Sequence to fold (887 residues):
Amino acid sequence: MASTKVATGAKGPTPMMQQYFALKREAEGCLLFYRMGDFFELFFDDARQAAAILDIALTSRGEHDGEPVAMCGVPVHAAEGYLARLIKAGCRVAIAEQVETPEEAKKRGGYKALVAREIVRFVTAGTLTEEALLEPRRANVLAAVCELRGTIGIAACDISTGRMELEECTPESAGAALARLGASELVAPEEWDAAPEAAVARPRHDFASDEGEARLKSLHGVATLDGFGNFTRAMLAAAGGLVAYLDHVGRGTLPFLQPPVARTGHATMAMDEATRSSLEILSSQQGGRAGSLIAAVDRCVTGAGARQLADDLGAPLLDRSAIEARLALVHWLHDDPLLRADLRGVLRALPDIGRALGRIVAGRGSPRDLGQIRDGLAEARRIRDFLSAKPDRPALLEALLPAMGGHGALVDLLQRALVPSPPTERSQGSFIAQGYDAALDELREISGNARRAIAALEGRYRAETGIAALKIKHNGVLGYFIEVPAKHGDILMAADSGFTHRQTMAGAVRFNSLGLHEEAGRIAEAGGHALAAEEAHFEDLTARVVEARLLIADTAAALARIDVAAGQAERAAEGGWCRPQITDDNSLAIEAGRHPVVEAALTSSGGKSGARTGSGERFVANDCVLSPDDRLWLIGGPNMGGKSTFLRQNALIVVLAQAGGYVPADRATIGLVDKLFSRVGASDNLARGRSTFMVEMVETAAILAQAGERSFVVLDEVGRGTSTYDGLALAWAVVEAVHSGNKSRCLFATHYHELSRLAESCEALSLHHVRAREWRGELVLLHELADGPADRSYGLAVAKLAGVPKAVVTRARSVLDRLEQARSETGGIAAGLGDLPLFAAAASAVHDERVDPVRQQLDLLDVDALSPREALEMLYSLKRLTTEREP
Ligand code: ADP
Fold:
């Protein structure tokens, strides 16, 4: 470690500490990596935090204000790995490099001068481009969010590939929009009360819409943004905040940004955060990819394809023709297994050109990245030629093919210029191919000759001195030198030997000679010139790639889309999935539907074909047929019977279909779903200080306020978090409201038998149950859906199955008998409901509530439980709701 003194004496901070503090202020809350020789050092709290996260030794060095200065360090050559761990742990890091050599510092400021240091870069989760720090199969999104006159603007980009999109939404739907983006880093204006918790606060003036517009125009060299789309003021304000942050983080160098795309909420299916997490679309509720929908579906062979698939599943389409276009491509590849296998074989070998391009444009590219662009573009062209020769190409493919060619001149240039596998390190040279530059070849020739001359010298000196063990060696300190074992040292030490002494080691003595000095000089000179020449070529080649960046990004996108389609076709073929029919009506007819994740789990846990049903070894397919006059299915049956699996599988099939893929069913007709809601298996949100029941009610309120006739709602066990009477009453009222108010397609699972009486009053509601049987005292769950109400709950049988002691189950049985006896005498807990003015009278009231979110919020409010601050926030939010609703 460098030995510079960190300490502060009684006279105040040392110059080094002053420099450190100045840089630390500039780092604005980031950890500061302070370069000292071969290490990045961290001090004070930074050191404590980093040492704990990285599990490295915390030491101290000197004192500051009478306290020892905590310190830890990481070696520069291994910094990337440490950075990755810090970023994963949620840190942001500023890198302060030495920007001059100690010699330059001395020349500038005398013997004691401190080496100048500057922050050269910020490393943050949303602004990574390094291959080692990124997950290949996940987009890395940075988002900026702000509010402008009551609407929310969101700007998002993935700088590793340059994608950028802008969106505007209401404050209420901002959560869903951000959930879809899944940003790894979020920035928002400082002092904004409604800013998302995790957002990095940035100066307010960065988020000015005219500023944003100006930045985008200059970035893309256009006089107007109209050519890219229609952008609102709120979108531009967010874009301003985003680009300003990138500028700050890159210290003035902007990364790769493609022209922004305006995303309108109407183009994709709305899914809020609760729906996404309950359906486990991109990650399971445990947090990882394992167990999620994408893990069960993804058969892409490239990282870019997997990222595109995640994007598709996160934002299913609403436009029937766009969905059909994707489906047609999947179909084409599905029906031709040989073509698919060939294509996937070629795609598998493709380098990730999107990300290589991101690094190159950000100024962090390497010769290897240039090589990847070369190979990727050459391969893209071959794939285009291969696919162009196939008959009956679907329209989407026809639209993609042109983007895969057109790089002939660039590929040719890179092929001539680069060696076959260029290194990641560019400072050592050796990446420009022989024959590309005659002057460079000559320089290489000179140093090659000199090297040969040195080898010849060695032989000559051996002969002249008679020392067979004489060697000519090279190291970083001495350069070239002659080395002989110590016992022969005297011969060369002789005054007229022609050798000059340089160093005496234990056992060896080192010398120089005039001849060696001359040849070594030739090598050094030619080598220096060669390096400079290679560097110049690197800059030139980089500039050529940067020039073509938009076309290269199009090529990468086309390849990713083809990989997604081929992967979906592969998955469909593997599982016997079908092409869904997409319609514009409110139907939903799924025959023999399966849950892709549960089915895969059963298969991989050794499911034997032909095994007994109900043993949990083979997945039981089920139908789901909803239509305008039978649009709400109430599903009963025992716990563990497969209710929530059924609910979720139908929601997932809708997601897969509208994302443009095949679905795990024998046949499926999907009337386009505009909003999807899923509340399955109350996920405890206790960490956020809300009880399960409260969460359930907040989420239910959101559904009642937002779901419409084109929506699909799956609800599981509403009301189970509270007492039986409360729960039943709420479940009852919610079913009525969804049925007659929202009129959405809905699957509602419940264990309340009493709800079956709703079939008497709700004309578009029907009763179903998952089948179970008791056989020789054992419960057999058939996981099979049947018409009609559940006959009984099997709660005790499930308890027995779960290993509750026999004595307890027997006791429960006798308690149950008593309860049931009492129930039949009094008419049961739903006894009075026969007289309730069932739904008709209440329907209009329910409808009113649905269209008045203010009233709904007020109804849900527990005034006594509010803190003054929460009350004020609530007032603001109510106020927002009313202003938004005014015409
Ligand atoms: P419920 O919601 O009725 O309590 P779940 O849907 O959670 O039941 O299902 C419980 C378990 O039963 C699942 O984890 C799965 O292993 C199995 N299961 C559910 N549905 C099926 C099915 N259709 N075929 C085979 N096994 C199933």
